[in-house]
Design goal:
The complex is a heterodimer.
Chain A lengths: L4 E3 L3 E9 L3 E3 L2 E3 L2 E3 L3 E3 L4 E3 L2 E8 L2 E3 L2 E9 L4 E3 L2 E3 L1 E4 L4 E3 L2 E3 L2 H19 L1 H5 L6 H14 L14 H10 L1
Parallel strand pairs in A: 1-3, 2-4, 2-5, 3-6, 4-7, 5-8, 6-8, 7-9, 8-10, 9-11, 10-12, 10-13, 11-14, 12-15
Chain B lengths: L3 E3 L3 E9 L3 E3 L2 E3 L2 E3 L2 E4 L4 E2 L3 E8 L2 E3 L2 E9 L4 E3 L2 E2 L2 E4 L4 E3 L2 E2 L3
Parallel strand pairs in B: 1-3, 2-4, 2-5, 3-6, 4-7, 5-8, 6-8, 7-9, 8-10, 9-11, 10-12, 10-13, 11-14, 12-15
Classes of the chains: A alpha/beta, B mainly beta.
Amino acid sequence: MAQDSVIGPGTVVRGNVHGDGSVRVGGRIEGDLSVSGDVVLEDGSAVLGTVSGAHVSINGSVSGDIRGTTAVVVEAAGRVVGDLSAPQIGIAVGALVRGQVQTDGEPEVASRKATAGKAARPKAKPAPKAAPARKAPKASAKKSKRKTGKRRPPPPVVPALRKGARGKKKKSRRR
Amino acid sequence: MAGTVIGSGLTVEGELSSDEEVVVHGTVRGALTSSDAISVGADGVVESDVTGSSLTVAGQVTGSVTAQERVDIQAGGRLIGDVKAARLTIADGASFKGNVDMDV
């Protein structure tokens, strides 16, 4: 197993740091920091480069983009010049952020759906198997229909239409 | 508690300099310098020159090594490169290839 790493306050890294496990930085990294685990930038730390990890907590200064697959939290002493992107983003009072902030829910939602599916399906599946399948095929069909109706995805976003195209479309719809 | 720990699974591609103890269980590809002790764990790999007050090698070091005090190559440790240190121990079961300069 990958163990936790520490870049102490008296340490300077000139180059990229990447790998597995979580990292606590008290020193200085002049390069990119990319790990699969959590990242904690302590007060007094500095990173000149992009930072990416699962849960990224910033109490130091970063000049570079920050990407968290779970969350990015800029604490009160944090100073960031760069873009933030994560499913969940927190910026404490007193923190400095200069850059774009974007919450994109895709990874989190996907993981939730996956876990929900994994958790729910095995429990749900054995019950129909145990029950006589021939007894009520109509009911099951109805149920499945309902389910699909409920879980139907939202309609696709219609691309922007050109001038006049909208009128044509409306007319065609009326007919 | 060591000042700086490069955990297993972590790779530093570049120079690492410190004024506190450094423990390497992962990989460092770039000059590793500390004014305190440096320790390379059994899974640790350092592919560059190493300078520290003392160095303990239980993993693999490729590069010339300079220590103000001592260099210890432990059993299972592997050091390929020149050593410049006042004291040097090479444990039974360690591998070492390089020159030794004890005239510090």
